[in-house]
Design brief:
Blueprint (H helix, E strand, L loop, with lengths): L3 E4 L6 E9 L3 H6 L14 E6 L5 E10 L10 E8 L1 H13 L3 E2 L4 H8 L5 H12 L3 H11 L2 H24 L11 H19 L2 H9 L1 E7 L5 H9 L17 E7 L2 E7 L9 H16 L2 E6 L6 H14 L4 E6 L18 E2 L6 H15 L11 H22 L4 H19 L5 H8 L7
Helix pairs in contact: 4-5, 5-8, 6-7, 6-14, 7-13, 13-14
Amino acid sequence: MKTIVALSTPTGPGAIGLIRISGSDSRSAVSSHFPDLKVWAPRKAILSKFYESNGNVLDEVILLYFPGPNSYTGEDVIEINFHGSYYILESAIKELISSGAVLAKAGEFTQRAFLNGKLDLVQAEAVGDLIASESRSAHDLAMKQMKGSISLRLQQLRQQLIDFAALIELELDFVEEDVEFAQRPALFKLLSDLKSEIKKMLNTFNLGNAIKNGIPLILAGAPNAGKSTLLNRFLGENRAIVTNVAGTTRDSIEERFRLGDHLFKIVDTAGLRKGKDEIEKLGIERSWKLMLEGQIILFLIDPTSCSTEEALVLETEIISRSPKASLLKVLTKYDLWNGVDYHKDFPNSLHTGSNIDLKNIQLKLLSLTNDEWNGSSDILIANVRHAEALSSALNSLIKAEDGLNDGISGEFIAYELKDTLESLGSITGEVVADDLLSSVFGRFCIGK
């Protein structure tokens, strides 16, 4: 493979800019720019001068040399710390390209680490997730995946299945003798165990995906209940228009914020009522759809404009349409309410005044997420590609089990077991296609 080069720190002025070079010819591509360097000491910071091809000193740098295979990519890797001048970094990369290196593609360093057996595909994707993490919980999840717990479990599942698949394949060579090398009761048990294990992994996807991309937090309620005001309070800016006119929010507004260890994806929705025009009706339909997809719903109730009966009917409908979501009830404008019975109907709700007590809501959210969203398991599925592959494997296992029940030939069973193995292997990269690699590593930043 050709020697590649790229800037591995963000572009723009800074104290330091790091350029990374990887390939079997890394030293030859770099050495002409370090004529003063006599000894390439591995894994030691070396202060030296970087010379341009015209003999001028471009910068005084710190160089680190990592001989392969004991490097990130498995190849010879050189990292050079320049001063973070745009001119210096651009000039250095041009010099290195003129010396034989080529500009790296997005994710090419990590792709080489995968191809050289330094990482499997799950761990490689976790590197990208780690770079993109915006909260402690997302960071912790990526670190767990980099340790390889998912990969190890998938390899164990595949190995169990490989042993039986080999016996089924062997039976096909002796079909005329009508022999069974794979004991059917044991195969039934294995398929049942594998189905159960894969279902458990799939059941963690909502949690893992929410930790990675933001826990969906939906603001719902009747018009003028205070949803847009609460959105602005969470974000600390006037993101949504707030007026006394009911129905101001016609469409959903989505933003993200960090609270405690978690990233939240907060969505302000159109007020729930019978829409007065086509646009409002479409906005309300979208509100219901978003609640179906939400993980936490903040149901805002304004007792000064919504009767107890209306609020209870709305709460019942929200619960029926979003049975899996956690529902938190918030009584807004409670300081303006003169009634005595309202709060008895909502004993577990948070009571706020006209200015909405954000702190109490935040504490309740933190309590809820710490209890239900702590991600303590070592195996959490957070990647859509992994979930789709697991679903495909599960479907193949179900077909294989049905085939066994129906007494179908071993050839059919072997086909479904092979599909299962391929689906599981595609997650870790044991079974891989070029277009899959392009899809995975194309989402990385250049220089990683």
